[in-house]
Amino acid sequence: MNFTVESDVGLKRSENEDRVAFCERLDNYKLAILADGMGGHNAGDVASEMAITALQRAFMQVDAAALLTEEKRQQWLETVISQINEDIYHYSLSHEGCKGMGTTLIAVIIDQANCTIAHIGDSRVYHFTEEDGRLITRDHSYVNVLVDNGEISEEEAQHHPKKNFILRALGTELTIQADFYSMELQEDSYLLICSDGLSDKLSLYEMAALITLPLALQKKGKKLVQLANELGGEDNISLILLTLKDKEV
């Protein structure tokens, strides 16, 4: 597997509250994680750092038997994410400067070509082939509730003033429920995990156009960040881009 990781503070923020990591075990199970600390809340970087560090540590230590099947991987993620949520929540209550902190979370366990995805918040996972691209996750956002209720259209949601108001975040309440997705990567496809600093600036078409360019994977990742900054860069921009291709170009 070929992958690249990028995280950029953007042009308007003084601190980067995003955290991102990719790790691989000796038995070849892999974990891609992205957490976007909640902007406008205290200590978003603390929440995202706690989430990434705890999940990465748990993944590297868990017995392989817990990762053997899609069902087992989902069960393990549910258990670990629930514990991490409690830890962040209690930490926020006991540290004055951290009250109200929270973070989005994307966690993807990769077993060869099989991906088990856990999702909380408005960070996203996309899947691209040479022919098309699609959004895998669905934001836990106020505007998506309006869309589901038929009050606004998908197009109106893209420009709604409360577009970035999320309804679910890790660490803001005592309990949390992640959404789960499963998919299989094809040999010539790409998985993009990103924070809203990227997805708010680039359309699906613009992402696909860059990702399918005849460039090294690392250059594709850097160009995605560069374009998001050129289009305003108001937020932190983070991504993991991966493919089963051994080589690019």
Automatic annotation (TrEMBL):
Domain PPM-type phosphatase: 2-244
Gene3D superfamilies given in the database record: PPM-type phosphatase domain
Superkingdom as given in the UniProt entry: Bacteria
Pfam families, per the entry: PP2C_2
Protein name: Stp1/IreP family PP2C-type Ser/Thr phosphatase
Organism whose genome encodes this protein: Lysinibacillus louembei
Upper lineage: Bacteria, Bacillati, Bacillota, Bacilli, Bacillales
